[in-house]
Every structure is written in structure tokens, then in C-alpha cells.
Amino acid sequence: MTTGSLTGTTALAKLALRRDRIMLPVWIYVVVIGVSANAYAFVKLYTTASSRAALVASARGNPALLFLYGRLNGTSAGALAAWRYGVWGALFAALMSVFIVIRHSRADEEAGRLELIGSARVGRQAPLVSAIGVAALANVVIAAVLCVVLPLLGLPAAGSAALSLAIGTCGLAFTGIAAVTAQLASGARAARGLAFGVLGVAFLARAVGDSGGAGGQAWLTWVLPLGWTEEIRPFAGERWWVLALPLALCAAGVGLAFALAAHRDYGAGLLPDRPGRPFASGLLRGPFSLAWRLQWGTLAGWAAGYAILFAVCGAAGKGIGQLVGSSGALEKEFTRLGGQAAIVNAYLASLMLLAGLGAAGYAVSATLRLRAEETEGRADPVLAGAVGRVRWGLSHVVVAVAGTALLLAIAGVTAGLGYGLRAGGTGRWVSHMLGAGLAELPAALVIAGVAIAVFGLLPQVSAAVSWTAVGLAVALNIFGQVIQLSHWVLDISPFTHVPRLPGGTVSASPLVWLSALAVVLGGTGLAALRRRDIGSALSGFPALPSPAFPVAGGAKIPSSARRERYVETRTGPRTALKLSVLLLVHPVLLRHDTPMWPFW
Amino acid sequence: MANAIEANGLRKRFGRATALDGLDLTVRDGEVHAFLGPNGAGKTTTIRILLGLLRRDGGEVSLLGGDPWRDATTLHSRLAYVPGDVTLWPGLTGGEIIDLLARLRGRRGGTHDPKRRQELIERFDLDPSKKARAYSKGNRQKVALIAALASDAELLILDEPTSGLDPLMEATFRECVNAERREGRTVLLSSHILAEAEALADRVTIIRAGRTVETGTLADMRHLTRTSVDAELGRPITLDGLPGVHDAAVEPSGDGFRLRCEVDNAALNDVLSRLSAAGVRTLICRPPTLEELFLRHYSERTVATVQ
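Above: the input entities. Below: the C-alpha cells describing the complete assembly.
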């Protein structure tokens, strides 16, 4: 590294902090509130040693829970909190670090912003250093805040420090890993994918190591950073030296990243971009196959995530009765949440509600692909072909609808398999749960219908409105019942009208009218799409000097290029939405009798 | 002769802003028609109306004998379009996109003539196996151009097709457009570069602020093909009375004189011989840019017609 290669680092870091002034506090808030709310819940809910011992005993006998959360190192409230949210807090810190590092190094490079900056008085290494610096700062803040908050909740100081540092250093380790993948990959997406791949492997390694029991591969928790947060053993005989592992990985990653950065060209990765087909295969023949080609990767990711998540959560349902029974307050809440007598049924029905809400999120993101194609100018070449508006619109809508149905079927089948394999009666449970999952489909499609309708009628606000619809459904159905909103308010969400299965009574009429509503909304949107302008906004078009009032000499010729293309700023409404959901969730999280388990 | 495109009094507003204010455009079958105007004049808006992507607020328009809004889908199988700002699907390769665009135009199960496709890829020096995210602006433009040129469309609508191409590729592009003309295809070529229109077009339409200010052959618009002359001379000179000289102005500059004028190309030889007689110290001759033309030529006239 030559002198001067760091010039401008501070300025770039300030710029990064300015650009992330909302998302950075939100990330920190999410990690801090997740960990501390859980710690608070355990302190308040499990007050006696015997209730904690009962919980630990039943959790230790449940490999699915060990897979999901980690190993139980002790029976104190702190150890329970560290078990429940230590690995997940570290996972969120790692996600945050990857996003920050890639966003301010590789994504900027790809977008050409660094080219502009690089031509100014900015050193070669400055962008990477500032990206790493911002991520490191965020992790330090998380660790510091947790260090203060956890003891205030009544947990021992040493354990609190160990848990906070375990989470913060895991974020630092992934800062180093992301810095390396940013150099290796050919673009921001690939760099993010590589880093998330490492994170996924880390999670699976420790999950397998934790759930294997005595005869299992316990050494796997030692392989990658997420397992290290458990090996530090917060609140259960802290092993401080383990903290050196993530710190060493961070240092090694950062060092390697700089060595690699010195050997690659601007805009190029060390791993070559594989050449693709020089001809289109016969499968890529029209708008529908194009939409499928553009969306299948995302859907495959969702499907894999759904399969693993609901298989594990379904399996965790065995023994849920004992687990919940160990806290009287929880038992009461749980019964109320599901609305049915049997705790297992209530638990599985809640899982399906979660699956439905998640699928609604998928449906909206798949539908909004239309808007992205439009604003980014990729709808033009399709619509300039012999492709009608409705056919183009349907091409993505079909993927969204089929994908949503697929996700719900996967959720039902895997949850049924997971539960059935452990509790017996696999075949019966699979078919029951498949039905329960698909019962959520009409409600999820109503939300998708809202997205299609807004896309057709008010395209400029389609992202904001449809994500708000998802957020509202989540807020009402997960937290609304807990804080006992009036039924009139709860009825706004389509998911309120879905029969709670398994266990509830099935009635076809809400499913029929929800489906009809979804079809009407979707049809309205597609009809409106036929009538509106494509690619341009109805507002936000800068005024052209009118020829009726020429400036003296007529010299004012508008010269700014491409004013016809309106690109919406999508970060604004989305960030606002996330913030509002968080604010809504915030008081709920802090209520001590709220069953954050198993949702948070 | 039939007209491929016929627009009369086309109007389009975006909110309070007027993008098109009574635009006329006539493109005859089989001609290369240049559609000129400074940035923001309404060229892209017009093209998007012709493609049925925008709905006109007023005026008449026909495209290949049909209504571009109502008959969009059927008309589109007879035309090919190259957008001004080409964005492609980042995960698809250039070759896949070229084939996809052909299939989207409705060639059932078919692709372009493979020989023609291959020839164009070689002429434009494009690597079709690269993913679109790795292409520069020029290469993205090449993908769209190859897809359009390799098609058998009757009408090519090209929106500033050379803005990202280097001079070598620009020359290739001109050869290709000339070849299209020989095959009898109609080309609408929007541009803000006058030289491009001079090199390619049979007829030209010039627009400004959403209105047509001039249309005709380039021969009709000899005043557009004047050369701007800017010279420093040792002795004073008068060019008064010489045919083909416009806006001549001589002023003392240092120990010599500075002459600025516009000269019809036919009179250039006479003017240059007079200049050399007056002792040329420096001489700059260049064609006027479109912006200059607008400033010098159309601004007064627009004011006059409005008043």
C-alpha cells in the first residue's frame, strides 16, 4: 500500500454514514432489540430455577430446537437468552456487515459511482477501508449498547459482556469475509451471494454440530464464526479466549482483501464471469418464459428457505406442550394466539399463518418485478415486440401466483413431514398440513391483488402501497391479536378470515370470497395497465419551457437528457415502511408477557 | 407513395408540462428519415407514442396503416425498435437477448436468419456469450442494433442509436443503414447530430419544444448545410455582395482583423480565395451544430410565428 492510497477515507466514510443514516440505526436497533427483548422475556417469564430447568430439559430433548437456536450451555436466565438469541443476533450482525461492506465497495464500483470518486483526490484503497470502517463501527456500537442494556435487564455483567462481544465479533468476522468476497466476485450480487453462502454454511455447520447430540459431530461448531458465539459460553463459564477467533478471522480477511484488491482491475473480479450461451435455447421464447427465467432463481431461494425453516419448525412442534407448559403465562398466551384448545394445533396453525404472511411478501416482490422492469426500461423492448400489455403483465403475475402456491404447499408438506416424522402419523399430518398451508393462499393472493391493482392504477406508489399492505397484515395478524385490537380492526387483514388449520373448522365461504376479491383486484390492475402510459410518470416530469412563452431570443433550449424517463426513488417509502413497522412492533416486544417465542 | 408514419398535430402532456405541442411527422415508405431536435425536444416522447407505450392526448397518428395505440401488438411484428438508452436483463447473454427480441416480435419458434445474425455480430465485434451486466453502454446498444438489423421488419425505429458507439462502429452502423435503404426498408432515425442526418437521411424533420419547425430533403434545407467560418486576417475584407455569404461580421482584433460568417457550401471556394488574398493567420471552418442552428435560425422564427 503506497502512501496516499488512503487519502479521502474519512470523507468516504462520512458519505457512507450519510447514505446509511436510516438503515444503519435500523440494523443496530433490530439486533439490539431482538437480543434484549428476549433476555427481558426470559428474566420475567422464567423466574424460578425449576421452571428454567424444565424448559432446558425439554429443549435439550428436541433436536429441532437445538438445530434452530443452538446448544444450551446452562440453566440461568442469561444462558437461556444467549441460547435463544445469541446465534441469531450474531447472524443478523453478520448480515448487516455483509450488506454494508458490499454496498459501499462493490455495489458502488458496479454502479460507476466509485469511478467518479476515484477520479477525485481519493486513494486506491480508500473505498474499501471506509466500507470496512463503517461496518466495524456498526458492530462496535451493537456490542457497546448491548453491554450496557443487558446488565440493566438484570443479567450478570460478565455474561452480558461475553454475549455482546460474541455478537459484535461475529459481525466483524463477516466484515472481513465480505471484504474478501467483494474482491473475488464479478459483481455486487455475486459478492453478496458468496458471503451469504459462507454464512449459510456457518449456520448449517453449527446447527448440525448442535443437534447431533452425544454421538454427533460436535466439533462442527468450532469450524465457522456462528458456532463460536456458542463456544464463548456467555453466562455459563465464559471462555474469553474464543473471542480471538473471530477477531483473527476479521484481520485475516481484511488483509487478504487488500492483497487481492491490489491485484485486480477496477470493475473486474478475480473469479471470472462464466461465459453463457451465445444463442438462446428453445425454452426462452416469449414473455412467460422470460418472466420465469428472471424470477426462478429468487423463487428457488425462497422455496429452499421455506423447506428448511418449516421442516425444522414442524419438527420442533413435538414436545411443544411441555415446553410451553413450563411457563404458565406463555401457555395462556399461546392458547389465545392460536384460538384453539390443543397447543400443538395452535402452534402448527401459527406456523401456517407465518407461512402465509411470508408468501404474501414473496407475492408482492414477484409482482413488483413488473414495476422494476418498467422503470428500468426493460419493459420497452418486450412491449415493442408483438406482446400485448395484459400478456406482459400476466407473465410476471403467473409466476407470482404459482410461486406463492408452491411456497405454501412446501410450508405445509415440510411442516407436516417434520412434525409427523417425530410424532408419528406422517402421511396424515402431511396431507392435513398441505391443506392448512394452501388455505392461506387466497389471503396471500389478495395482497398480491392489491399490488397488481396499484401497479395498474397508481404505478408511482406501487412499491410503497403494496409493502404497506404486507406490513399491515403482519402487524395485525402477529401483533394485533397479542395487543388485543378490536375485531373490527383485525378484519382489515385478509389473513384474519382464513380458518386456523389444523384444528379449526373449515368453511369454504371465506376462501371463496377472498379468491374472488383477489381476482377482481388483479383484473382491475391489468385492465388499468392497458390504458395507462408505460415508463413515464404522470407527475414528476420537469416542466419544459412552453413555446408559447419563449425566452428572449428563444435561447433557452432544454438540454438535460432523458427527462422522459422517470425513475422512482424506491428506498424512501421502503425505509419509511420498515421504520413504521418497527415502531409498531417496539412496544409489543417490550411487554413482558408477550409470547415472542417462537416468533422472535 | 404510401407513408409508413403519418402524424398530424400530435399532443402529449405530462402533468403540467407539455412534451408535444402539435407535432407533425411524415415518413414515406422506403426512406431513411432523420428526426432531429435538441435534447428534450420530444423525440423520445414521439417515438414512444408511435410504439403505443404512451397514449396521445391529441392529434392523428398512423403507423404502417394502423393505429399505434389500438393495434400495437399486430403492428409490432412488422417493426423493430432500438431504444436510446438500452437497458438489458443483466443475467441474460447478448446472444440470448438478440434471439429473445426476435421471438418477442412474433416469429413463431423462429430466430433471425442465422447467417445474417452471425455476420452482424462479427461486423459490430460483439461477444454474444457475455452476460449483459458485463456490457458497456456501447455494447448494450450493439445488442439492440443487431437484433433490429437482423430482423426482417419493414420499419426500423432507432432512437439515437449511435450515442454510445465509437467512431469505427458508427461507420459500420452507417453502412448497415445504407444497406437497409437499398433493401427498401423504412428507417426512422432520431438524432441530435446533424452530420449523422446528412450522411444517412433522405429526408429530415426538425422539431423543437414539441413542434415541427422544418421538414423536407436536405437539399431543401441548404441553409442547414452552411459552414461556419472564423478567421483571423492581416488586412480588412468585405464580403458584401458575394452570393452565399451570411451574417458576415469583421472587427479589428489585435493588429489584424477577425472575420466571422456563414457560407453556403457552394460559395466556399470563392470565400476562401478572398480570405487568402487578405492574409490568413488562423482559420476555423466547421459545420454548425444543431444547437447553433436552433439558436441562430429557429429562435426568431418561432417567436415570429407565435406572435
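Note for the figure: Chain A touches chain B through 62 residues (CB under 8 Å).
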